[in-house]
Amino acid sequence: MSKVAIVTDSTACFPADVIKGYPMHIVPLQVIMDDKSYQDGIDIQPTEFYTRLATTKSMPSTSQPTPGYFAELYKKLLDEGYDILSVHISSRLSGTLDSAAQAREMMKTAKNRIALVDTMGTAMAMGFPAIIAARAAMQGATLEECRIQAEKSISLSSLFVVVPTLEFLHRGGRIGGAAAFVGSMLNLKPIIKIIEGKLESVDKVRTFSKAVEQMTDLFIKDVENRLPVRICVHHANNPDEARTLLEKIRTRFSTSEVAEAFIADVSPVIGTHVGPGSLGIAYLAGM
To answer: What are the pLDDT digits (tens) for 70-89?
Structure first.
């Protein structure tokens, strides 16, 4: 029987306890801060990142993993007898999947043992499909069966985000259709959603608290009649509000309607683009 390893990347923002024991390997993206490069979640953790962000002299930037990094990991896993499902951040937000594709080509005769999945998402909207695939792999599913499970879950997953300021999304070039709000409307709090792999504004509210309420209502509308739901509340150095948000979300469902629910830090790479204080709701509904 073949065995399958899941390769994914650090923008999923997995809590360590959620993926403990899974056949999962996380490739870090890079954060460049004060002319130094750090591996996301390895050389720099969220708390340190947000502390330094408050005093840094220049806006941090990010970069994708190199094809060589992927190739080294792929070769190791192939040599250990694994087939590989590589599940990554939207190709419309990052070149990470392209690096993975280049590495796959380097594997030559073994490249048919590597399947690539563009989740068209990020954070746990990407992470949930990776987890579903990993759980299938643990139950003995083949590479193709794991890929099918991941693809199915992608169609049922999404992500909402509320940011205190558009500054970080604007500077990082990740704001997509929400760019119309930059300038005269900067005082508004946009609600951002992943749509077709890009960050798009779906509403705008005058205050952050009202934006979080509206985000929650939009999330509830998205998942109604598609239960059970798996929920992750993301926060960028905003743990107290994240806990409050998750508690409020739980009151909107019965216990049996929530398959799993947890809180996750926003990684330094994602934090570079959304900025401190941001809150998000990632979900997988109906699977």
So the answer is: 999 999 999 999 999 999 99
Which amino acid is located at 270 in the chain?
A: I
Q: How many domains does the chain have?
A: 2
The per-residue pLDDT for range 171-223, each reduced to its tens digit, is: 655 454 444 444 435 577 889 999 999 988 888 888 899 999 999 999 999 99
Per DSSP, the residues of 216-264 read: HHHHHHHHTTS-SEEEEEEESS-HHHHHHHHHHHHTTS-GGGEEEEEEE
Bridge partners (DSSP) listed for residue 191: 162, 203
In-domain check, residue 9: yes
Burial state string for 192-207 with b = 16 or more CB within 10 A and e = fewer than 16 = bbbeebbbbbebbbee
Q: Report residue 46 CA to chain centroid gap.
A: 14
Rounded CA-CA distance 32/60 in Å is 6
Range of the domain at 106: 3-29+64-154
- Phi, psi at 56, each rounded to 5°: -65, 145
In a domain, 57, yes or no: no
Collect all residues with Cβ–Cβ distance below 8 Å to 158 and sequence separation of at least 6. 121, 125, 193, 194, 222, 282, 283
Q: Which of 130, 154, 178 finishes a domain?
A: 154
Residue 53 lies inside a defined structural domain of this protein: no
Let me know if residue 117 belongs to a domain: yes
Three-state SS for 16? helix
